[in-house]
Amino acid sequence: MNNVAPLILTLINTNRQATAEELQQIVGHAAQTPLSSRPLTMNRWLRQALADRGARVPAERLPSAAIHLLKRIHLDRQWPPGTTVAQCVADLHQAMQHPAMHVWTSRWLGEACAGFLSPSHVQHVPNAEAGIFVAYSAEHGVITTGFQASSPEAICTEAFEHLRRHREERRMDLQVYGPDHIASCLLNCELLVRDLAEVAANWPTLDDEERGHHRAELLQTWGNRRVLGTLCKARRLQAAQEARLTDLDRFFLAQAALMEHCFGLDLCQLLAIFRWGTPLSTSTQTVQIEVDPAALERMATAFAPSLHD
Known about the structure:
Number of domains: 2
Number of strands: 7
Radius of gyration: 19 Å
Structural class: alpha+beta
Largest sheet: 5 strands, antiparallel
Oligomer: single chain
Mean pLDDT: 92
Low-confidence stretches: none
Shape: globular
Distance between the termini: 53 Å
Order of helices and strands: HHEHEHHEEEEEHHHHHHH
Strand content: 5-15%
Strand order of the largest sheet: 6-5-4-3-7
Number of helices: 12
């Protein structure tokens, strides 16, 4: 464990505001670390989505950094074609050292991390956004993910625990989400639900760093789902987009047990989609929810009123 990791853990465990010197120490270390490159098997639907968009996937098993970059170029369309892993990492390091950077510490699905959001300098791409977000794992000493995002609201969900913001942050601007942005958000969510059964089947054999890769991918995807909910509630989705979101939310609920098995995202956290915004809230059709009975017991304890003799 590096010297910065105990500092991040202390900030999380005590919910303490970092000093300027401590933030400088965290940034100085994290902005020199690599993007996780653990070899991983690429899931079926992700391989297909990349192939459909003309991406050349050289092997079924690739370093996680290479998978990360393929998604950012061909699916999210947030980095230009031809970008190398080294160039992408340099962009993430540059963003982490921006003077207007926002910083927070938290546990994402149990993993201690620091998050950095800075104004984006990668703008000549179809789906450029206002900021670049980078997540650094205190437990593994590497960057786990990096992507463009409009605001902390487009990233931070209830799956973050003990979240502490150490600098002021901007609000979400719905005006930046055009048809291409929305299509990318929907695609990321669709890939998650399509590949979830495969991920769940392999989960018992994955080591902690491999699981960390999937948790890092979920960080972006679950933030995308929150963005879609905000757009839905603001009535900014077209009919076809709303129909896709309806199907997605049905899949999320139907696979609730797998979401908890892989990510620890329990039904209470999954039901946040109704608070963010979902077409299901006005639907007259029933939904199926696959859930462990223990989760229902936890919900009953949390929501049911106490009964006294």
